[in-house]
Amino acid sequence: MDTIWGLVAAYFVVSAPIATGAIKQVFDELDPTYEYVGLTLGLSQWGVFMRVVVPMTHRELLSSFMIAWGRAVSEFGSIVILAYYVVNPPLFNYVYPLPILIWYTYEVYGLPMALGYASASLIISIVILVLAEIIGGGSLRFKP
Question: The whole model's pTM is what?
């Protein structure tokens, strides 16, 4: 509670299903022939994954992780419960995560002040999604 590890756990629980769902679709569409060839050439299963599968899907993997991170930026519920503020990071006494900071600013200072933080959060999320689309080479067309 109220530690950096609680914050990481909350973000992980929210973002992991999004990332794994997107990665599963990428791996399902991958032709297994390349994996069989790697196995016949003497690579272990881990070696096939690292030397064949990851290089073939690195753009899709990166875009999946960026989408999951963009989703984690907006998480509020689990952050309020686990890490309302983070105590004792290296340089400060406590730090509010961005969604909590927006809510706290709205409650204390009102809407005009909170709109600045909310706008920054929105711009960051849009930039992440645009970068994911560029890096993925237009691969963000997942199956329903």
Answer: 0.66
